[in-house]
Each structure stands twice: as C-alpha cells, then as structure tokens.
Amino acid sequence: MGNAFRRSPWQVFGLVLGLLYGAVTTVIVVAALVAARMAPDAAAVHTVLVVVGSIVVLGFVLLPLLFGVDDTLEPRRFALFGIPTRPLALGLLLSGLIGVPSVVLALCSLATVITWSRDAGAAALALVCAAIIVLTCVLASRVSTALASSFLATRRSREAGGVIGTLLLVLLAPVILLLLTVDWGRDGLAALGGFAGWLAWTPLGAAWSAPGAAAEGEWGVALLQLLIAVVVLGLLWFAWEALVERVLRTPVREAHTRAYSGLGWFDRLPGGPTAAIAARSITYWGRDARYWVSLMMVPVIPVFVIVALVLAGLPIHWVVLVPLPLVCLFIGWATHNDLAFDSTAIWLHLVSGTRGVADRLGRMFPSVLIGIPVIAIGSVLTTAVFGDWAVLPSVAALSGAILVIGLGLSSVTSVLFPYPATKPGDSAFSQPQTSGAFAALAQFFSIFAIILLSSPVLVFLVLGLTVNAFWLGIAPIAAVLIGFAAFFGGTWIGARAFDRRGPEIMAFANRND
Questions:
Q1: I need a surface site. Which of 113, 355, 431, 482 has the fewest CB within 10 A?
Q2: Maximal CA-CA distance, the chain
Q3: Is the pLDDT of residue 405 over 90?
Q4: Phi/psi of residue 187, nearest 5 degrees
C-alpha cells in the first residue's frame, strides 16, 4: 500500500483521489448512521440498513467475478516461499483489510453500533455483526478474485465475463423502472420492506438484520440470523482456504487451442467468390470476439428505449411495436464499418481481384442469416402481444424494410466512409483511436439515413393504426419498393466504389494498423 505512493505522479493523484472519495463517503454514511440513532421508527432504519447492506455485500462478491481485478497479493505469487496453506490464507485475508473499500466498510459497519445503541444488547450484537460483515465482505472479495483469476485468465473469458456483466446490468432496467414508478413518499418503506423481509434471511443481509431485529425485541429472530451469518462466514473461510491450496498447486490457466475438423461454412456453402466471402464472414462472426460482443449488444438498446418510453407515459400497448424494428435496424447497420474490421487483411480481397459485388453480397450473409428468423419469429410475437393480427404484414414489412435498407446503405458507407475499428487480436472492449468526431458522425448519419429511408413505411403503419386500416395494406407495398430499391442501389454503388477505391482502402488499412 505504501509502495503505491512511489509510482508516477498521475497514479499517485488517482490514489489520493480515491482516498478522498472514500473519506467523504465514510463521513456521509457515518453521519447518516449516527443520525439514525435518533430516528423514532426503528423498523424503518432496520429496513433501509438491510437493503443497502445487502447491496454492499453483493458488490464485493460480483465485481471481481464479472470484471476481474489485478490482484497484487495473488496466492500463486507465494507458491515458491513454502508457506503453509492456512497461515498464507489467513495472512492474505488480513491484508485484504488494508485498502480503501475495506477501511470504508469497517468504519461504516462500526457506526451501526451507534445506530443500535438505544439498547445495550442490540449494540453488543451490532459490534459482533460489524466484525462478521467486514470479514464476510473481504473473504467474499478474495474468493471472487481467486475465481476470476482462474476463470478469467484468458482474453476470451474476460470478454465473456464483460458481456455477461453488461447483460446483467441491462437486466436491472426493469428493476429500475419498478423503483421509479414507486411513490417513495407514500409507499417507499413498504416497497423496501418487501425486499428486506427476504434479504434478512439470506447471506447478503443476515448480519445487517440481526441487530435491528434485536432492537425491535425479536431476539429469537436475531440469534437465528446471527447463526446464518456465522455459518456463511465459516463456509467462505473453508472455500478461501481450499482455493489457496488449489491455486498453489496448479499452474496459470492458459487458453486452449480449439481443434476444428473440416472447413466449416466453406464446406456448407457452394463455390465462388461470393460464397467464400460469406463463409469467411459468418466464421468471423462466430469466432471473433469483436463481432459477437457487438451482436450481444443488439438487444441492449431496445431494452433502454422501452424503459424510456414507458417512463415517458407511452402505453405499453404501443411500446411493444418498437423492439423488433430497432433490433432489425442494428442488425442491418452492423456491417456499416466491416472493412475496417479486416485491417490490413483486406489486401487479400484486393490483390485477388475480387469483384465488388461479391464482396458486398458476401459480407451481408451473417446479417441475413440472423435477420430472417428474427423477423419471422419477432413479427408473430409482436403481433400476438399487440393483440391485433391485422398488423402482422405491416410489422413484418417495416422490420424487413429496415433490415434491407440497412444492408444496402452499409454497403456504401463501409467503402466510402470507413473509420478506425478495434484491431484484430485486441480486446473487443478496447477503444481505437479516431480522427476527431468522424467516427461519431459516420455512425450517426448512417443510422439516420436508414431511419429516413424507412420512414414512409413507418408513417403508413402509424396511419393504419390511428386513422384508417387501409394504410396497413399500403405499408407492405411501400416496404418492398423502398427496401429493395435501397438494397440493390446501395449494393451497386458500394460494389462500384469497392472496385475503384482499392488504393484508398489499402491506404486506410495501413494508416490505422
């Protein structure tokens, strides 16, 4: 910890900033806990402490497991010192108490003794529970860190963990929506009480709940919850000791090279340059983390849009029509910068004399392969939830039009307006360098152009739902005319540009290598 202050000035500045942030947080939380001592409603204080404390424990458990940490005192670093397992595990546990999060947690946990000092027995129990809480959180963090260092040792596993963590955050959107719809002035404590009621009997909230239960005179409940907390602490210790022993005896986990038999998609698709590029594209989409991480993010934006529309007061009956077109928008838009993902490997397409039309059509194959079942299944589900089967052709037509318009325009933008992308082999979560705001402008205008060209179909669908059902029959016709015009026109323009801009494409690839 002291050696951290001997690093570069900016690292020391960041450390000092973290210490100040921890100090301010501690002062605020401790002041709130001291003020809670004078609150007339002990049950309300009990409820809030259980919910907030459970969130704190969950954070110590999940953050290292999902995103990994750089553990300076990893048990494997002591493998050559001959230290027995138990003393090493105990020493590493005590070293976990030295750090900003642990110190903040310890001070805040001790402040709960003041909160429950209205009763001598409850205060004594709060002191015991404070020690259990700190040790439980530090042990949980140590166990999670050890698991993360074992299972997130390779780049692919770390990226998978990042995707899972992001998706879990997305799943919190409905919870946030529920919390925002609660009238906290009137029903806030009742809503928290429902959560606290079951959290108090889980490993997350048992130690936080026991002193409050004792302060309310429920000593039987308090002792049972204390027993749960002690058992959880013991299990974590045995898990930590077993992990230390295992880590000391096993080498660092390395990525396994997967053996493939056959040529995969190259065997399944017929011969020819278009099929070869299609097979290569779908293979990349399945194996390259840059592609599947982007694909996993496709359902994310519709979730946030739905939450925003519901919070804005739009009836859920109409909101159900939004997700499918949005998903199709991003599936069609996914190839708008596909050339940049090839980096300097694009020279293989250029030097082999690949025709632009073969390159453009081949790169669309993954989007088409994904988009067709999404439209087929999504249209039926959307219509079933909406409750009027008369809109099925229009919903499918709008979604299909957005998809093919996106594919057509992406064929143009990926050739004429490429921007730097994550390099092959780099982490999918790394940020490439870009020149000014060009990347943001290219993304914005490419999405805006797709929405603009598909807007007539959207207008006809809205008119059919609000004015006259006649327009529901016009929407599919407009979707076919506009969609295929944009698709074939964009493919033709993109193919011509690819044939003529070979030197410029290669210069872009070399410049951003």
A1: 431
A2: 85
A3: yes
A4: -115, 10
